[in-house]
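tool_call: predict_structure(chain=1)
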Amino acid sequence: MRRAAVRVGLSLASVTAALTMSMACAAATPTAAPAGGASGSDAPSGPVVEAPVVGPGSAVRTPVDRRVDAVGFVDVRTAVPDAVLDLRYATTNNFVGERLYPPNARCLVHESMTPGLRTAARILRAGGEVLVFWDCYRPHSVQQRMFDKVPDPAWVARPGPYSTSHEAGRSVDVTLAARRPNCPPARVVGDRCRLDMGTDFDSFTPRATAYATDGVAAPARAARTRLRDAMAAGGLTVYAGEWWHFDGPGAAVRRPIIDVPVT
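tool_result:
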C-alpha cells in the first residue's frame, strides 16, 4: 500500500483522507431490501410487485404481502414455479356462480406444504404433466358463503370457530394438465390442456369421490392415480370424498381463524 502511494506521488495524509471519504460514502449508500420485502415497522402494508417466474427448476421466493408472510403463507409458485393457476373462485365458473375472490387472487399455501408440492410437481413434470391449482388458501368469509349455498358437510366444510384446512392454507384443490393437440376448448388452461379426470371441479356426485370407478373411464382413473401417487410421495393425502382435494401436514389441527388478503 505504501509503495503504491509513493508511485502516484500521494502523501500518507492524502491516502488516509481518501480512505475516510470512501468509507463515509459507503455508509451513506442505502442497502437494497431483500427479495421478500422489508420487515421493519415502516414497511408498506400492501402487496409488493411479484418476482418473475424463471422456470421449473427455479427456487425464487415470490414476494407476498407482509400480513401473508406473517402467518407463514407463501405464493405456491415459490414451490412450483410452473404451476398453472385456474382459481375458479376468482371467476363465476364455480358452484356458487359468483366471483368469491378478486380476479388477481393468488394461490397461497402454508410454507409447510412447499416441500411436498415441490416433490409432487417434480414427479409429474418428468411425465410431461403439471399441477393445476383450483383453490388454495380460502378466507373464512368465503367458506361461509359456500356453506350457505351448499349446507352439506359431506361436500362443503361447515364454518366454525376454527379454520378449516383450506382456511389454514394447508389444503389444495388440484388437477393435471399437459400439452395436448386438439384440446377441447373447455379444458384449455393457459398453454396446456386439463386432463379428463372423470368430473370437473366441485362436482357433487359419487363420481367425484377419490376412488370412484362407476362412470369414470379407465384413462381418468389412471390420471387420478398418477395425481394421488405424486402427491402421496410428497406426504400429501387425498380426501376420499373429492379426488382433487389434498391435505398437507397438520391439516386437521385446530387453528384460529386467519384473515389475510388473497392478492
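agent: The radius of gyration is 25 Å. Proceeding to next step.
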